Amino acid sequence: MAGKYGEKKDYKVIAVVTGEFSATDPAQYLEIIAETCKQNHCRAVFFATKTDLYYENKNDELESHIFDLICVERFDAVVILVETFKGRNRFDALIARANAAGTPVIAVDRELPGCVNVMFDYREAFRQVMEHMVADHGYRRINFMNGRKDDVYSDERLEVYREVLEEHGIAYDARRVYYGQFWEKPTHQEMERMLQEWEELPEAIVCANDAMAIAVNDFLKKKGYCVPEDVATTGFDGLKLGEYCSPRITTGVHDVRELIGQVYDCVWNMGRAKEQKNFYVPGKISIGCSCGCDGLKPYQVGTEMVRMRDELHRESEFLNSMNEMIPVLTYDTTFEDAINAVFERVKPVYYDKIWLCSNLAEKEKKGVYRQKQDRWEQLGNSSKTIYSDKLWWIYSDRSENTVQMAEENRVNREDLIPHLPEVLDMYSAVLVTAMHLSEETTGYMAMACDMKKFWVSAYSAFITSFRYIIELKKEQAKVLHAYMSDPLTGLYNRLGFFECMKHLLKQHTEGNLALISMDLDGLKYINDTFGHAVGDEAIGTFGRMIRESATGRLSTRIGGDEFLVTVFDVQAQQIAEGIEQKLRDQLVSYNKDAHRPYVLEASIGIYTDCIQEHSIDFFMKKADALMYRNKQQHKNRRRD
User: Which pTM value belongs to this model?
Assistant: First the structure.
């Protein structure tokens, strides 16, 4: 295995694992890490999911396969943004692999076993909020809108709530604790229950996060109460929306930049980090007006609404463009034209470089000529190991307005993309996301750009649309291939032959074409004597021989017991004669060793001429004439 990605560089390369990368908090992490990487002598490769893995369904399972792509041995550290995921812990295998390879793992914002943990000190910040309500305002009847039961953060905040009350001589009353599940609807339900259970309103309601505080304020206002005059409220976690609420939410806030700075410090001082193991970044209270203070005033909602309106309009236009792209690409466009159209439409995302890396098929159909149309199927290949050892890649460079999609493009899975170290010299971060269809992982997409300009939500929408297009085109290719194939031999049928010849004749406008016409001898005798099942076996056997003898050539069962093979080459006649000899050798070997009740023989004719001189019908008539001459020779020989 090759060395570290950052080997012989003056920076370290870290793998950053993040969930639902287009959501507000993960997108903020993405931007800040990318922005501060270079000044901290680091580069980041983000391995990102489109969901937070909450539902734990098939889609979430396929999204989580991106973790399997991380070659832990080649990174200087692995950083997991734990709180961007809402599902169960899916990191055990990743952490175990990293620990076995000696690559340190840093868990951010929640403690994980086997990791160095960098976390916000939520306990102290929540204590400041509670102390402010009890000591500064003197509230005694304080209800607590907690999050979820048996949740580490909920339990910690409940503990602080109880401690502060008791420290100030206020008896803890479990009836004053409610559970709003950290979001709006359950909070409204709990508020209904609170009003039913208490004749007297509490003086204050302390909430375990800002989303529930906003919901509490909204509920109270609808019931005719004023905040903070009738009931004071506080939130926690510094939600951006809370800055626009009236009254502005008093809350606990934390500095993400300080948290990320501590992560970089651990990366460069891992010996000390492993000794200390847990690092806490302090938070602080941000005093608004919902608690009863004359604190920070809400931002101008009108300005933000105009900004959001413009952003929604922009996103709507982009989504319309993506939706229009899907039906357009279902038409009879070439693979190259379709891929170019895809990357043209995604330019508003402000990517600089994109790589689409697709699994290679576990086993190619031996000897079968494949059209370029079938590359849609190649984009949809699955692998027994989730990601194949080598992948086929397509590359788009926005600034140069170029797309590379050569058949021979290959990259090792552990290298991720071609020339990754050179890419990291230019860019502080690369974003990698899984490509999967409804039931299987097919590869991944990597993107490099200036993260300040990057339109993260649009890129997420693009990935969804592109996945759908690949699945649609793959199924189209499957149907078309089945329509053009002979099920008995695996060769093309008559329709497939003429369809493929259209493409081949466009590629080969000059030079020689050799057409090999073949016909099984005595098939009627085999059918009449031994039955059609045995006759089908004979046809299938000869089809296999053709595939093995004419590897990579357009091979066709043109109908019944008639077959064609085409050879486009300067030395077409010699190559065709070589194919004929291989076939005859296989027939001799089969008749000697197969112990069948019949002899398998074939008549073969080869016609070679310049491509531009004649039509394909002319070639077929000439080759058939030579084949029938050979068949007559066989009959004459049998009479003798």
Answer: 0.82
